[in-house]
C-alpha cells in the first residue's frame, strides 16, 4: 500500500534516508537544515514523503509563500507590472504551495535506491496528490512545481495527467570544463570575448581569499548582499545572515565563501558549494563602485574556472541570472519548467491567460536565447 505524508521540518526524516534518495547531492539534508535554521522571512517549509508498505520510497522539498506573478519578469514587462501593482495592490500576488525550494538550483524528487524508473510516474502522482491535499489544509489554491528539469519526461507526464499548466522557467547555466588551463578555456571563446577577458586579467585585480567562516566580516558581506539584491531585477527570496553562516557551518568542506579585497576593503564575495564533481555558484555580491575598475564579476568567474581546472572538477554550475554574459562565456543551459494549477477553475483560466504575458522569455532577449537553446 502506498501512502504519503507532509512534514514541517526535514528533521522529521532521517538524514541517511533523505540523502539515500539524493545520492551525491550538494543540497542535501544538512543544506536544508541550514535553510530552516536561517528562518527566511515569508517562507514556510514542507517536506513530502511517499511510503510503500511503511518504507520510504520518494521525497521532495516544498514551501509555502505569497508569490508575485511577475517574479521572473524583467525590463519593460517588469515596469508595466509594477505600475499595475501600484494601481491595484495585491492583484498580482497569490498564496502559493510549491514543490521545490527558493534556495535550491532545481526541483528534484528523490527516489530510494532500488526504485525502478518505470515506477517513478506513479510515485510522482502520489507526491502531487499529497501536495494538493497539504495545500488544501492550509487553504491555498495554487499548487506549483518550481524549476523542474525540462528534459525529465516523468515530471511532464505526471503534471499533465494531474491537469497542470506549464511554462518555461529560468534556465540553469552550466559550464563544462574539459580544459587543462584557464588559457585553454579562454581559447574556446569567441575572439572578442577572449581578447576582452585577457585584457581584464592584465589589469590590477583584487586580493582573493577563500574562507570557511565569515563571522568577522559578516556585516560587510550582508552590506554587499543587500546592495546587489537592490540592483537585481529578478528576485524571489531575501536571505538573512544566518543563511550564509549556516550553510558554511553545516556543509563544512562542501561550502566556501570567496572574498575579494581592495586593500583592506571587502568589495565582493561569492558563496559556492563544491565537491569533486561540480562547483555550484550560490550567490555573488559586489560593490558597484569597484566593479568596473576591478572587473569583479569576470574576476570571480575566472577564479571559479581556475579552481575547477586545478581540482579536476568537470562542471561549473552558475545559476539563473546574467544570461547575456553567460552566453559570451561559453555556458550551456539546462531548461527548467514551471507547472501549476489553481483549484478554482476561474482563477486557473485567468492564469492560463496571464502566463502569455509573464513568461520570462518575453522580456529579456538574452534569457529568451538561453531558453531557446534548451
From TrEMBL:
Keyword Amino-acid biosynthesis included in the entry's annotation: no
What EC number(s) would the UniProt record show? Answer: 2.3.1.-
Q: Which UniProt keywords apply?
A: Acyltransferase, Transferase
GO terms of molecular function: acyltransferase activity
Pfam families attached to this UniProt entry:
FemAB_like
What EC class is this?
transferase
Record's superkingdom?
Bacteria
- InterPro entries with a match to the protein in the record: Acyl_CoA_acyltransferase, FemAB-like
What is the recorded name of this protein?
A: GNAT family N-acetyltransferase
